[in-house]
Amino acid sequence: DTEVTQTPKHLVMGMTNKKSLKCEQHMGHRAMYWYKQKAKKPPELMFVYSYEKLSINESVPSRFSPECPNSSLLNLHLHALQPEDSALYLCASSQRLGGISSNQPQHFGDGTRLSIL
Amino acid sequence: DAKTTQPNSMESNEEEPVHLPCNHSTISGTDYIHWYRQLPSQGPEYVIHGLTSNVNNRMASLAIAEDRKSSTLILHRATLRDAAVYYCILKYNNNDMRFGAGTRLTVKP
User: Fold this and answer.
1) Which terminus of chain A has fewer Cβ atoms in its 10 Å neighbourhood, N or C?
2) CB contact under 8 A, A106 and B97
3) Strand, coil or helix: what is B12?
4) Alpha-carbon distance B5 to B35, whole Å?
5) Has residue A89 got a pLDDT over 70?
6) In a 3-state reduction of DSSP, which class is residue A75?
């Protein structure tokens, strides 16, 4: 069982819908991440949060909007997505960014499989 | 940016050792070498990491070349449950991670 919980596990939505992906961890980690993974490809970093503040945005289109309401939760709000956005969305957490703690492992959830009709 | 090169795929027999190589010739002095694996239908899972010295844990061993330009992940006795994609990753700017293509390991009974 993973210590990072992602909901829902599967999501099917139309291009005009608005939905949100949720990620939760209770390990006291202060760095949280969103990745996108297409089939047979490696995960690609999208966003990094450090102490609830956005630290890295990998030039992700604005139809993806991340939010970190508190240290345990990470959301990804979706609006007006395109069919090519269909993928597995992975959330991860780690202790801290920076310093010796930066080499602590990232803990991943099992992802939300998103299909855009 | 330091990059890694791994074979696309490898095969192993069950209960035999597996050596998964990774080349990282442009590694910097402060980059740690991390290994993760991704089993089918799961998120990536941390395996091991190191800087200069060889490392052992309950899952695997990591052998790092003296010049740090390559490393090898060693699974001492492969099981069917070790079939996965194995990623060798160097820590990047801001301490986040960038995944390469990885090695798909097939374990034959």
Assistant:
1) N
2) yes
3) strand
4) 13
5) yes
6) strand
- CB–CB contact A103 B98 (8 Å): no
The beta-carbon neighbor of A103 closest among B42, B43, B91 is: B91
d(CA B92, CA B82): 27
Nearest Cα residue in chain A from B46: A105
Flag if A109 and B43 touch (Cβ within 8 Å): yes
Of A76-90, B13-27, B91-105, the one with minimum mean pLDDT is B91-105
B13 to each of B51, B58, B83, B100, how far by Cα in Å? 30, 20, 11, 25
Q: Which DSSP symbol is given to B95? A: G
Contact criterion met (CB < 8 Å) for A97 and B95: yes
Q: A97, B96: Cβ pair inside 8 Å? A: yes
Cβ contacts of residue A88 below 8 Å, gap of 6+?
A: A36, A37, A38, A111, A112, A113, A114
Whether residue A1 is predicted with pLDDT greater than 60 in this model: the reply is no
Q: Please list the residues that pair with A11 across neighbouring strands.
A: A114
Q: How many CB pairs under 8 A join A and B?
A: 54
Joined tokens for residue B14: 């069950």
State chain B's maximal CA–CA distance in angstroms. Answer: 42
